Amino acid sequence: MSVLWGVSFDATPLSGVVVEFLKTARRFAGHRVHLDLGYDIKADKGAFFRPYRDEAGLLPGWVTLDRVEGVDGIRGYDREFVDRVLREVVQHGDETLRPEIDRIAGELAGKIVATWERLGVTMVMVENGTLPENLTYTEALYRAIDRYGARHRLGRFVFWRDHDLMWQSEPGIAKYGRFPYPGVPTPRNSPHIHYFALHEQARAKTLEWVPGLRNIDVLPNAFAIAPARVDDRNAGFRRDHGIPGDVPLLARITRIIPQKRIDRDLHLLALLPDAWLFVAGDVAEAPSEHDRLAGLATRLGVRDRVVFGGWLTPYDTAVPGRYSVRDLLAHATVVSFLTSYDYESYGNPVSEAIASGTPYVTSGYELYDVVYGRKGFRAPVLDIRARDLPDAAFAREVSELITDEGKRADVVRANSELGQAHFGTRVVDDLVDRLYPPPMGAGTRLSVVLPVYNEAANLPEVLRTLHDQRDGDAPLDKGRYEVVLVDNNSTDDTVAVARAFAASHPDLALHVIGEAEQGVSCARRAGMDFAAARSRNRPDTDPGERFYLVSADADCRVDPHWLSELCTAMEESKAAIGVCDYYYDASHFTGRPRLWDAIQRTLRCRAVTFSLFGGFPDGKGFAVERDAYERAGGIEIFYQLQDGKFVSHLSDDWDFGIKVASGGDAITYAPRSRVEINPRRVDHAIDEVIAGRAYGSDGIIVMRDIRPSVPAAASDLTEAEARQAWEFSIKDFTPKNTILPVLLTPTLLEDDAVTAFFGADLASRLARRIAEIRDEMRVVDFTPIHAYKTPSYRLYFEFADELFACLRRHVGDDIGFPPPLPPCLAEIPAERFAEFVRYYCEDRESGEAHNYFGNGGVF
User: Fold this and answer.
1) How many separate domains does the chain show?
2) How far apart are CA 567 and CA 651, in angstroms?
C-alpha cells in the first residue's frame, strides 16, 4: 500500500493547518496516512518531545499519529536550541550557530529518512515548512527529501504547502526578520518538490523572494459548498451546551490566544443583547488568555451568554461521540472572525462559514481583501485600522444581518456561488489530480482523452460507447484502456454526470481533470500531457511497449470496435499517428437527399485520399504514440485575435498532424476504426455550412456553440444550396487532402500508389513545382501554423483541373469539375496566371483566399 507521510510545523493538534492537511490527504485514496504534528519542531508551543495523549481522538480514524524516531537522542537538539536559532540567526542574522545547525540537520535528515524507509513512504506532505520556526528542521527535511527521492527514483513526491509566510505572520514585530530574510532558508528547486501558496499574492511574494523558483502553484484552501443542517447527530448541540434554542448564536471557531482577538467578540456581544456567543477552542492552550476573556465577559455583563465549548473536530470530519465545527455551524446564526490585523493569512473560519451557508462578520485584517473582499464576498467588515473595537454602527449592521432573514438568505446565496467558483473542492481537486494523479495500471496501453464543455445532456451516451468497447466478439479488456475527461470550465452538470458514470461503472478507469484556459486545444493538450506523464510510471512494463494517447470528442459516439481496430492498425504499421474513419447515420438525413449526397461525396473523397496518404488527425478520433507525441512537443497552442482578444486556435489536431508528418513520422489510416459524427454539426450550422463560414472567416477559425435550444428544422437543401455546399466542401477538402500530404513529404510522389493516383506526368510536375515554391518561399518546412496554406492554395489553383480529373477517376464522375475561380483571377492571362495566384493567396490584408477556401472542414 502507498504511504503518505504528513508533517505540520504548527505543533497543534487541530489548527487550520492540520484541518487542511486532512482535507487534502483524503483526496489520496488508497494511501495509508501518517501525520507528525510537529511537536518536535516548533519551540513556542511547549510540546517538544511530549508524547501524544488523546490527540488521536480528535482526528479521523484513517490517520495514524506518528513522529520521526530518535529525534530526542540528537545531541544539542532541544527546545532551547530551536528558540536560540530563531532569536539569533533568523531575527538578528548572527551566523555563529551555523556549524551546529549543519551538524544537527545532518543527523535529523538521517532520522527522517530512516523513518520513511521503515514505513515505505511514497508521498510526503509538508505543511508550513518554509516558515522559519525551526530552520534546522527545514534544512534537514530538504536533505532527507533529496536523499530519499534519489534513492527510490521518485518524481515530485513532495507536496509542500505554506499557509503562512514571513510577510503574513506578525510582520509588525518582525518575528522572522525583514525582507529579504537573510537568515531564512529559501525554498529551493528540487526534482522532488512541488510548492503551493494559498493565493496569488503569496505566490507573487514568494517569487519576489526567490525569483528562480519553479513548480509553484496557487492552491486555495478547499471546502465542500453545502448547507450545514441540523440532523439527528447534532440536534442536541444547543441543549448540550446550555444554549437556548431560539436565540441568535454567534460562532467563533479559532484558537483561544491573544492574536485572535476574541475580546472583540465579547464587546460586540455586549451590543447585541439577545445574542449568544460560542467560542470553540482549547481553553488550556493559553490559560491566562482564557482567564482574561472570562474576566472581561463578566465585566461586560455577558458571561452568562458566552460558552467556551472546547475543541470541536475539524470542519468536515465525523468522530463518534464528538461534535464538529460543521455541527456548530448548523446551529449558528453568524460566524464571527474579528481577528488581529497582521496575524491571519487565509482566514479559514470565513471559508467555513461560506461553505456551510452561514453569514459571517469579520475584521478587515491585512489579507482579507486579497482572499475574500476583492472577489465580492458579502459581509459586515470591521475597519480595525480606524477603530479597534466594535461600535454601535457596526453592531447595528450585524444585528440587521441576524434579524433580517431575507437579507441573510441573499448573502448566503451570493457567497455560496462565489465560494464554489473560488475555493470549492472541485477547484482543488482539478489541480491535485493533475499534479498527483492516481497510478496507472501496468496493463493500460491506451488513454482516451475527452475534452468537454457543457455536455451534460450528451455525455452519458458518449461515455457508454467508450465503456462498451469490444475486441472481436468479446468485451475489450477494461484494464487495457482508460478515459481522461478534461472539463473545460463547464457551467452545467458535466462533471457531476461524469463522476456519477464513473461511480456506476467502476470497471472502467475514468479520471476527471480540469483545464482553466478555455479552448478545446488547451483541454486536449492538458489531457494528453496528464496521460503521458502517468504512463511512464506504470509498474513492470516492457520498455519497448508502445503507449497510445487517443483523442475523442464529447459529442460523437464511437463504434464498438473503435479502440481495438485503431490499436491494431497502430501496432501493425508502427505509425506515429492513427486516423479513424468518420460517418453520419443515414437515417438522420432521410428526406434530405441533396444534403446527404454532398456529405457522402466528401466522405468518399476522404476515404480514397486517406487510404493513399494516411490523412491527418481529427479531434473526433485519432491516436498518437506517446513518444512521437513528446518528440513533436505535444499539442502546441497557437493564438489568434478574435473581436480584439487573443483566443486559442482551434485547428490543433490538423496542425499537430502537420508537425508530426513534417518531422518524418508516419500517419496511418484505420478505416475500420469508426466514429459517428453528431449531425448537430450540420443541422444547426447549415447556413454557415452552405456559405463556407461555419468556422469563421478572414483566416480566423472560431468555434460556435452548435447545441440547439430548439430542434432544427430537418429540411433539404435547394439545388443551388446543395451546389454551393458541395463547392465549399470540395474546396476545403482538396488543398488539405490531396496537396498538403505531398507538399509536406515530396518523396510520396515517388511511391507507386501515389504515382498511379496522380499519373506519372502530373506527379513529376507537382514534384518540380513544390521544389520551386519551397525555394522561392525560402521555407525549410511547413510546420508553423498556417504556413502550409499559401503554397497549398497556390498549387490548387495551378493544378485544379488535373486534380479534379484524378478525383473523378478514383472516386467517381459525380465529383465533377473545379468550382468557379475567384472573379479576380478569371480574366488573368494564362501566361501570368501563376504570378497572380501567388498575389491572391498571399494577400493577408484581405483574407480573400481564406474566405474562398473556407476555414474548416464543412462535412
Assistant:
1) 4
2) 24
pLDDT digits (tens, 9 = 90+) for 747-766: 999 999 999 999 999 999 99
pTM of the entire structure?
0.66
pLDDT of residue 27: 82
pLDDT digits over 312-329, tens only? Answer: 887 666 667 789 999 999
pLDDT tens for 571-604 read: 999 999 999 999 999 998 899 999 999 999 999 9
Q: Cβ(37)–Cβ(6) under 8 Å?
A: no
**CB-based contact 841:798 (threshold 8 Å):** no
Please check whether residue 859 lies inside any domain of the structure: no
> Contact 725/595 with Cβ under 8 angstroms?
yes
Do 557 and 613 belong together in one domain?
yes
Of the residues 694, 719, 744, the one at which a domain ends: 719
Average pLDDT, the chain: 88
- Same domain? For 557 and 614 the reply is yes
* Tens digit of each residue's pLDDT (9 = 90 or more) over 353-409: 999 999 999 999 988 999 999 999 999 999 999 999 999 999 999 999 999 999 999
Residue pair 656/671 in contact (Cβ under 8 Å)? The answer is no
8 Å CB contact between 636 and 656: yes
pLDDT at 845 over 70: no
Q: Is 291 within 8 Å of 373 (Cβ atoms)? A: no
Find all residues with CB under 8 Å of 519, minimum gap 6, and list them: 488, 637, 647, 648, 650, 703
Q: Which residue has the cell 501554423?
A: 785
Alpha-carbon separation of residue 673 from 414, 546, 680 (angstroms) = 48, 19, 22
The answer to whether residues 176 and 168 touch, using CB atoms and an 8 Å cutoff, is: no
482 and 523 part of one domain: yes
User: Is residue 332 within 8 Å of 354, Cβ to Cβ?
Assistant: no
Is 227 a member of any domain?
no
Chain position carrying cell 492540520 = 18
Q: In whole angstroms, give the CA distance from residue 357 to residue 392.
A: 26
In which domain, by residue range, is 133 found?
Answer: 2-218
Output phi, psi for 827, to 5 deg.
-105, 10
Closest to 206 in 3D by CA, of 245, 161, 248, 171: 161
Cα–Cα distance, 565 to 674 (Å, whole number): 9
Burial (CB count <10 Å: 0-12, 13-18, 19+), residue 713? exposed
Other C-beta atoms closer than 10 Å to the C-beta of 108 total 25
Burial label, 603 (beta-carbon count in 10 A; 0-12, 13-18, 19+)? middle
